Batch of 2 targets.
Target 1
Amino acid sequence: MLRQYELVERVKEYDPDADEALLNRAYVYTVQKHGTQKRASGDPYFSHPVEVAGLMTDLKLDQETIVTALLHDTVEDTLATIEDVEDKFGPDVARLVDGVTKLSKIEAMPENERAAENLRKFLLAMSEDIRVLLVKLGDRLHNMRTLHFIKSPEKRQRISRETMDIYAPLAERVGMYEYMREMQMLAFEQIEPEAYATITGRLAQIRSADGGQVDSIALAIKQALAEAGMKVEVSGREKHPYSIWRKMAERHVSFEQVTDIMAFRVIAESEADCYRALGVLHTTWQFIPGKFKDYISTPKSNGYRSLHTSLIYENSMRVEVQIRTRDMHRTNEFGLAAHWAYKQGDRPDGQVSWLRDLIEIVDASHDAEELLENTRMAIYQDRIFAFTPKGALFQLPKGATPVDFAFAVHTDLGAQTVGAKINGRHMPLRTALNNGDVVEIIKGKQAQPQMSWLGFVATGKARAAIRRSVRLKERDEVAALGRKLFEEIAARVPAKIGKKAIREAVRRLELEDEDDLMYAVGANKLGDRAVMEALMPGSTAELEEAAEWPRQEKAISIRGLTAGVGFHLAQCCHPVPGDRIVGLRKEGEPVEVHAIDCLELASGIDAHWIDLSWGRHSHGAVGRLRVTLYDRPGTLAEMAGLFAKNLANVVVLEQTHTDHPFSTYDVELDVKDLAHLTRILSALRASDAVAQAERL
């Protein structure tokens, strides 16, 4: 553990003007507050914040960050309060400590009860000042280094999975690869102990049998570059066990089949020398096509810059080589922490693009589970590069589609997307993008995000924006249905209902405004009696005494609402326009529309029934048929031809039974209305290929 004077000396080495008294006060404060508390290792608890502060000095961070590291557990684990911290160390330190504390509180909650508001506050604090995240990453890294002292294997595994799912990806996204690699390896040892032991054992065998092969290859690379007149540093290493294991899992190969176990790093003096070194290596050894990546001209979003290539060395051995300058190397290993080191005099504002995306996700997410899902999507995926037609570069996760690309460019563009061109060709919106694709988004002014997009988008930003748009549309449509229901309810009140009565009803029901009232009626959060009483107190008294309740006088039209948003068509009876329909209204759910003769209605469903009508010119639904064909060649094709001739698109075709000489199929068709579906049934029954056809 660092002693008090050692910590101060470390800070003074890179920041001679640091406030020594402030650092000493913080050190003493954390020792006093944690007092006799012990860690699982048996060490005094205050050794942990002191070691985290030491990690922050390795990154050469400013004195406020060092003080925050010393105090980061005091509010969570002692009697200290944020007000105490602010009083003794100032508002900036208090704000940073509060940000770190909020994430610590989230960790202590079961995942299914994770508080969205706390996570939201942490992400906002992180976006305002990235040092919150840097301290938290240091905190997690030191906890992982001492994880083996925890006796419970279940707890070790839970912490390790959380590290692998959240903290290692966050470290990668801010470019702190050194932290990411160590956290992954320590977590891997707990999550997959057998795989870890096997791979580390095999690496040890290779190391003892290769006779210093890593050093000899590094020397050969250095000599080849020296002969070309270049002064470089070359180092070699084996890839760490988790990296090898992930490659084995992704490629479904054994340890022996992983060819690029060794990686080498070339540190050149300038950017130009990096490209010169690449040329020398490619002319000295054969390079592997498709394995070259230029992150110098197109850096990763976290600022990572390097040239990557893979070479075939002697005896067909494959080795990976990374080429970079010393400045690039520091940024690559410590990312934003290196960029915002104290010596550069920059105040870390944290406003990088992926953090802004996270804030958009925070604003759009509906609940804790959705927020956690979307933020994980945003931080934990391999990346590809895609370009706009004008050459602007965007990084996206593997599997991203044109819809993800559009939302990455701008949320409004994503919302207005109707089509896309990839490399000049019109392609479906669900097409997965490849590295280097040029994507042109085709937009429409009246377009809106579609619920179906959730089935293929790969980014948290796109998913959050789509869900938010669909929710708003759903609210509007439920409110529109509620307005129709409200008019029918108001007609039963023995008085003329005007704007004044509605305003008073909103007040009595403690709602925000008239729109809230209409939404509450549409979503069945308010019953008919409650609405009538709010409009005219006492209006239901006589009805209660007489034990009578007036029936709905006219059917409510669902024209203008979107199936799947304002209402759902029941899957049990598949009603189509032209059927007599009723609606089941359950609290907080869209109206479920059933045909009047649906068998499900006879089972006593606990829901409020409303009389519905399709409205004029309603069309478009899915009709469901059961068709029994004679089991002979060509009958299935004849049935398909009848569907096509009657302009009906087949949505689902499933063979449900075979009993020679018959085959039975369940078919779902896009139809306009009941008349359209009836014509199709008539055509099927008239066909010699069809033994029987009926509607389900």
Target 2
Amino acid sequence: MRKTWAVGCLILLLLFSMIVPQATSHGGSIFPIVIGIPGVPGTVYIGDAPPQPDPAKPVIVFVQGLFNASSIWHTGNDMYQRAREAGFETAFVELHDAGGDPRSNWNNGKMLAEQLQKIADHFPGKKLVMVCYSKGGIDTQTALVHYGKHPLVSNVITIGSPHYGSPLADLAYSDWVWWLSSLLGTRNEAVYSLQTGVMQSFRTQTDSRPEINENAYFTVAGNSWGPFLSPTWFGGLYMLEDSDGVVPLRSTKLPYGNHIKTGNWDHLSIYHGKETFDVIRPYLTSTRQTASANNTTESVSPLLAENNIYLTGGEQEGTLEESLVIEPGTESVTLNWMSNHPLNRIELIRPDGQVQPASFKVTQDQQTLFKGAWQHIAQLNKPMAGTWKIRTSTDRKSAYALIATFNSPLSAQLALQQKRPYAPEYLVTATNKGKSHNLIKEIKTEAQIQYIPDPHTNHKQERIILRKRGPIDSRAIQIPVTSAGTYNLTINIRGTTTSGAPFARTIVKSVAVDKQGRIHVRP
């Protein structure tokens, strides 16, 4: 009888623990209330009450970014602590990324809408203010505008959010990087949604809706690429425009938003409390009138150069050698050999056959769009003109992408132009932009065009190659649009300079086509 009674008590205790929210240790921080199961997508954490709570202040809801869990706000980050000390009640959400299955803004937005309702029910009569990092800003706007939760929220603050996408997402879906992205698992539904063409389509669907006027939007951005030869530094060099190493500055702003500040932050530091809490604090409680009065405009520097990349890649096992053509007048070339395993050996052979001493910095990307990639980065200053060899070896079956970024006046004279507005036709051209004379004599191009269906309808994201690599007769490139989805152009350029020297570049372009057949591309 005593044993039966003990078993019954244990069952009742287990049932009670499933029904009543418990104080739970998660990511090194104690939360008094957990709505859901710790670490599982869909869960909501209610933060500790502040030492001196202010009933007039809204509740801060913290939303994480791509590949992140909610713990980024309180583990190794004092953002949560600073919010509590300032008298704010807080809540944290766990989106699909926390479960290792990053999803699009549509799926994350739907989940977030349900979580916002739970938070509002827990704090009856109080408004919520959203503090969102990176892709979390897009997930949040989706929840408010497309899933109808804007009445629960006053202000939305986005920190380093790619409202117009990131060229690094386009790169992940390019022909040369396809195999590496596949093995890394970074070619997924979430990264798909961050392609510049896809996000341009999202802006068309969103910015014309009346719901955008129901909340005050504030944006914060960074313009630091981070430590030299780090993954964010190389991301900044790849995009070669004002950015935080992952998101271009011009992508972080909204035409109807209030840009608070652009600061000396890279993408991996911008969300830390010691960096930006004091910056966003005045806008956590601003009224709409105050928000309008504080609206600021900030000029964005133009592209430093265009089409400065040479790209190749594929599968590797054992020793492999790639060629790289460097034209005369090149100031520097930065090499990044990305792979899903660290290399056993990497060496550079100059055009004269001599081995070039080079110090490659080897690091594993932990938090950008190429999470998990091993990056082997080196910079060549005043390199010898001609054909170089990059020889690498690995004892494991691997995939790789070689990305060479040129600092050369020739880059500014290459351009990819859309032949007509909204038309899926492009032309590779040469101009004398920035120079008194042309540097380019001849251009030859080949292009691979692939169609990537929306992962909502094709979960395997199997690409359909519409045009394989190979010579084409004209520098004009036409996308054979078949249906809605994303079309990735990987355009390989070979040419000669006016002095007769060879050069090579690669252009990656993302084009989205909606169900109405409209073309969406990054300006």
